[in-house]
Every structure is written in structure tokens, then in C-alpha cells.
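note to self — DONT lose this again. spent like an hour looking for the file last time. sequence + predicted structure for the chain T wanted, 66 res
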Amino acid sequence: MKLTHLGTTSGGGGCPELYETDRDTYVVQGTRITDPDALATLRARGLPDHETAVEIPKALLRFAKD
């Protein structure tokens, strides 16, 4: 998978980051969700054990292409 960096809203070079892949998908780097209630909601909606969820600011999505 080839990653192309699209942008960040971080001032220090860390997360969050947004990447586009050569597979017509995006990769998001953000803070891992660890809140038990939020994880329970995600699991109830079908998040499988082999996946995780990350939190990003809305402003990061300005780098996503239409």
C-alpha cells in the first residue's frame, strides 16, 4: 500500500494525520478510542475485534479529496 500524506492539523508533527492510499482509500492517524462506553457502542454497531477506532478533529477532513 502506497501512502500519500494529505495533511495534518498538528503543530508538532504528530497526530492527527490524513493519508490517501493507492487503493482508493484513506488512512487516518489519530488518538485511539479507549473510553469503555464509546467502545461498547462501536462494538454493538459491529466493530470487530481486529479493528480499532481513532478520534480526529473535524478540521482534519478539509484535506480529504472529493
